[in-house]
């Protein structure tokens, strides 16, 4: 099969997942379709930016359901604001306190949702942190520790807590970044290990811990070992690798999880601390996130992939950090 033919097949598969005929859709004034099937969703890190916009977009796109938004801070004012903004759909959305690095708070929310609904259909992992890389060894290590704790280990905490209560057609969307491309890891051997399709979760965890160890103020030899200074890059490369690993793990479990789809995405919106050309507002970026969260069942493609904000599949483990591969219109 030629490359052009492969692109057409992949594009058609992605489009079929977005607009599968098995789910009733009706037009909405926002230019997208409103999903009639009731959904239970969790959006972490939803207090501002693309997380908050994603919660609102998801609320607009669902005709009914329950959207649980999480924040590390107080939630009373967030609930007041979002319910005012959502108008007649206000009962669908609510904020809860949850810290991705605190397994007790995660399980507390998980149990609350389980007792009320029994399962969730959508999990959007947006909670994350970025620090401009620092030259001071002690401060840099603190940045590395905090970044990995939230962006990688915290994301895994949330996934592991909610995996047992996923519906059999659930969608997981892990927020990644344009800084999550493997080409940004300097050492070719580390790139080879991280990009290996057969990489296991245990091996990935070990590589993340190796990076952290090289960044301690005592060692401070991450550069000689082939790692970048930017912990955010390492965390998002790890998120992309974990996304592929998790999809494979779910498929190996058989019938119970074979309909579950996991993807990561670069939303493309402006980040207040990252220097980048960001053509999209948070509200615009949220549309691609929600499109990925609403991939209809059955969905053969994309699964375990890294998706750009224009819904192109990016080969994060090959080539350069530019979007390549299969695309479709949003």
Describe the protein.
44% of the residues are buried. This protein is an alpha/beta fold and 330 residues long. The chain starts with a helix and ends in a 16-residue tail after the last strand. It has helices at 3-18, 49-61, 76-86, 103-117, 137-162, 188-195, 201-214, 231-252, 282-293; strands spanning 25-27, 33-35, 39-43, 65-71, 93-97, 120-125, 166-175, 261-265, 306-307, 313-314. Helices cover 42% and strands 15% of the residues. The chain is built from nine helices and ten strands. Helix 4 runs parallel beside helix 5, helix 5 runs parallel beside helix 8 (231-252) and helix 7 runs antiparallel to helix 8 (231-252). An eight-stranded mixed beta sheet has the order 5-4-3-6-7-8-9-10, sandwiched between helices. Helix 5 links the parallel strand 6 (120-125) and strand 7 (166-175).
Structural class: alpha/beta
The radius of gyration over CA amounts to 19 Å
The helix fraction, in percent, is: 40-55%
User: Approximately how much beta-strand content do the residues carry?
Assistant: 5-15%
Summarize model confidence as the mean pLDDT.
87
Strand order of the largest sheet: 5-4-3-6-7-8-9-10
Sequence of secondary-structure elements: HEEEHEHEHEHEHHHEHEE
Q: Which runs of at least 5 residues are low in confidence (pLDDT < 50)?
A: 1-12, 19-30, 322-330
Shape field:
globular
């Amino acid at each position: 099969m030629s490359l052009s033919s492969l692109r057409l097949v992949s594009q058609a598969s992605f489009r079929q997942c977005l607009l599968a005929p098995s789910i009733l859709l009706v037009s909405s004034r926002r230019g997208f379709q409103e999903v009639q099937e009731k959904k239970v969703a969790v959006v972490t890190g939803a207090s501002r930016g693309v997380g908050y916009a994603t919660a609102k977009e998801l609320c607009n796109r669902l005709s009914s359901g329950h959207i649980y938004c999480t924040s590390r801070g107080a939630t009373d004012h967030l609930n007041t604001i979002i319910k005012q903004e959502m108008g007649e759909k206000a009962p669908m959305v609510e904020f809860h306190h949850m810290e991705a690095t605190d397994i007790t708070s995660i399980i507390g929310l998980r149990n609350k949702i389980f007792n009320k609904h029994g399962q969730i259909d959508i999990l959007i992992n947006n909670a994350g942190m970025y620090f401009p890389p620092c030259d001071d060894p002690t401060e840099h290590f603190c940045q590395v520790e905090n970044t990995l704790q939230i962006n990688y280990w915290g994301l895994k905490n949330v996934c592991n807590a909610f995996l047992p209560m996923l519906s059999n057609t659930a969608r997981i969307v892990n927020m990644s970044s344009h800084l999550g491309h493997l080409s940004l890891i300097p050492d070719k051997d580390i790139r080879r290990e991280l990009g290996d399709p057969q990489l296991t979760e245990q091996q990935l965890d070990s590589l993340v811990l190796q990076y952290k160890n090289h960044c301690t103020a005592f060692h401070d030899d991450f550069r000689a070992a082939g790692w970048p200074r930017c912990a955010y890059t390492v965390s998002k490369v790890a998120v992309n690798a974990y996304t592929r690993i998790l999809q494979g793990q779910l498929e190996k479990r058989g019938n119970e999880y074979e309909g579950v789809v996991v993807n990561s995405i670069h939303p493309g919106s402006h980040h207040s601390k990252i220097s980048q050309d960001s053509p999209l507002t948070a509200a615009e970026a949220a549309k691609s996130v929600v499109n990925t969260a609403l991939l209809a069942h059955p969905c053969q493609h994309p699964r375990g992939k890294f998706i750009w904000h224009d819904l192109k599949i990016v080969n994060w483990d090959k080539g350069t950090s530019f979007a390549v591969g299969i695309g479709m219109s949003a």
